[in-house]
Design a protein that fits this description.
Strand order of the largest sheet: 8-13-12-11-9-10
Largest sheet: 6 strands, mixed
CATH class of the largest domain: Alpha Beta
Number of helices: 19
Number of strands: 21
Number of domains: 3
CATH topology of the largest domain: Rossmann fold
Radius of gyration: 30 Å
Strand content: 15-25%
Shape: elongated
Structural class: alpha/beta
CATH superfamily of the largest domain: Methylglyoxal synthase-like domain
Length: 508
């Protein structure tokens, strides 16, 4: 039995190679892998001894040789293939162990040049992997060190079953596909945001207990990306305590953390079913939490809390009075962790702010919708007062806060805000006036003197009339309706201030 080994990831390599040699496998290798094995005392030959041809062009051509690829591609079940190998004096190759250079890590290093990137595009490795995987009934192909020990056990037992060979072949093709995806991303014109075709590479982080419902299987994957290699957020969060994350936990945690990190001041967000039901900014985090919780104490139960500053013992004492599924923060005081860990099942996450680079994907049957993220810098938002009364400075501060909050709530979205705190919210309704009614009901008396934000324009003045009845004094909305004049007239009739932003924030 002959095998070729050429790997970048040398985890467990020496022990695996020793095991193969002990089973009588004749090993051939290239470059750094050959040196590593030889230094470890493993009996290994250079690929040139197999091909009878030296490595040339600085190692660019070493395994691209008929002796290698005929040995890999020959079907053992075809007598004519076996006969042709014998006529040409070529021995079959039964094992190919290859994993490729981590292209993403290479091209995302500071100062990397196009020449560096091109030099790190492997040709021989993917070619051998594809050849071996194509011929998996006859050739064992391995790309993952996690498969070394099980494979040794099977070889020692005298057989590698066909289902296992097929599984290894699938992993090899996926390894090459992810590698090619990274190269394609790197070579893409940065201005070509939505190319005619592209692929996405995903790596499983973990299986969840189930999906949104118990009858659905699910897992959490991280995107491998050249353009956004350090996305931060939940995908790279560290879990410090508590039960494993479920599918719904991940969805809600992402919504909470993204919303909290969208605010520059110290902010606390409480999320339930991906919608912020509590949100407040204040220099005192404990006070910010109290105000966020007060926004909807009923919905807060069983929710997710995200804090965009170091988590203090003071806020931990406040939070300890309510049942929550998850707490997320960039860091924690030791005393705060001690208090939180008293809740056995509470999931505690430490996360970096999420990057807003990259694209948003939305699955539909048979396809994906792809878009840029809804991330408009403050410098591009210039609210324009359109009513007779202009907003006061205090109203404008709350209007801008509300405008940032409303984009994190499902459409049709309405928020009521007072003193940089969410006091009422209406979400996901098929008409906007119902969302206003829900926000007014949730806010109660706190609506009096509050401001309102809408994620899209008001198609009729009824939503503004309803807000005025609740006590709203100022409104921020995109504008752009054919009935804007009616909306402005309704606001003027109630001495309300209203500003247009020109930017819609639908979130479906």
């Amino acid at each position: 039995m002959k095998g070729i080994i050429s790997v970048h990831d040398k985890t467990g390599l020496a022990d695996f190679a020793r095991g193969l040699a002990g089973l009588g496998v004749e090993l051939y290798s290239t470059g750094g892998t050959h040196k590593a094995l030889a230094d470890a005392g493993v009996d290994v030959k250079s690929i040139s001894e197999l091909t009878g041809f030296p490595e040339i062009l600085d190692g660019r051509v070493k395994t691209l040789h008929p002796v290698v690829h005929a040995g890999i591609l020959a079907r053992r079940d075809l007598p004519e293939h076996r006969a042709e190998l014998e006529r040409q004096g070529i021995a079959p190759i039964d094992l190919v162990v290859v994993n490729l250079y981590p292209f993403v890590q290479t091209v995302t290093k500071p100062g990397v040049t196009l020449e560096d990137a091109l030099e790190n595009i492997d040709i021989g490795g993917p070619t051998m992997l594809r050849a071996a995987a194509k011929n998996y009934p006859s050739v064992i192909v391995v790309v993952d060190p996690a498969d070394y020990a099980p494979l040794l056990d099977m070889l020692a037992a005298g057989q590698v079953p066909q289902p296992e060979r097929r599984r290894l072949a699938r992993k090899a093709f996926q390894h090459v596909a992810s590698y090619d995806t990274a190269i394609s991303q790197y070579l893409k014109d940065p201005q070509d945001i939505l190319p005619d075709s592209f692929t996405i590479a995903l790596n499983k982080l973990f299986d969840t207990r189930y999906g949104e419902n118990p009858h659905q299987r699910a897992a959490f994957y991280a995107e491998e990306s050249v353009t956004n290699p350090n996305p931060g957020g939940i995908v790279s969060a560290e879990q410090l305590h508590g039960k494993e994350l479920s599918y719904n936990n991940v969805m809600d945690a992402d919504a909470a953390w993204t919303a909290a990190c969208d605010f520059s001041g110290p902010t606390v967000v409480v999320v339930k079913h991906t919608n912020p039901c509590g949100l407040a900014s204040h220099d005192d985090l404990a006070e910010a939490y109290r105000r966020a919780f007060a926004g909807d104490p009923v919905s807060a139960f069983g929710g997710i809390v995200a804090v965009n500053r170091r988590f203090t013992a003071a806020i931990a004492q406040e939070i300890g009075r309510t049942f929550y599924e998850i707490i997320i923060a960039p860091d924690y005081e030791d005393e705060a962790l001690d208090l939180l860990r008293k809740k056995r099942d509470l999931r505690i996450l430490r996360a970096a702010p999420p990057s807003m680079a990259g694209l948003d994907y939305r699955r539909v049957v048979g396809g994906l919708l792809v878009q840029e993220r809804d991330d408009i810098p403050d410098t591009q938002t210039e609210p324009k007062a359109v009513t007779r009364r202009k907003p006061s400075d205090a109203e404008m501060r709350d209007l801008l806060f509300a405008n940032r909050a409303v984009k994190h709530i499902k459409s049709n979205a309405i928020v009521f805000v007072r003193d940089s705190a969410l006091v009422g919210m209406g979400a996901g309704q098929p008409n906007r006036v119902t969302s206003v009614m829900l926000a007014a009901r949730a806010a109660g008396d706190k609506a009096k003197g509050a401001v309102m934000a809408s994620d899209a324009f008001f198609p009729f003045p009824d939503g503004i009339e309803t807000a005025a009845e609740a006590g709203i004094t100022a409104i921020i909305q995109p504008g752009g309706s054919i009935r804007d004049a009616e909306a402005i007239a309704a606001a003027d009739a109630h001495n309300m201030a209203m500003v247009f932003t020109g930017h819609r924030h639908f979130k479906h």
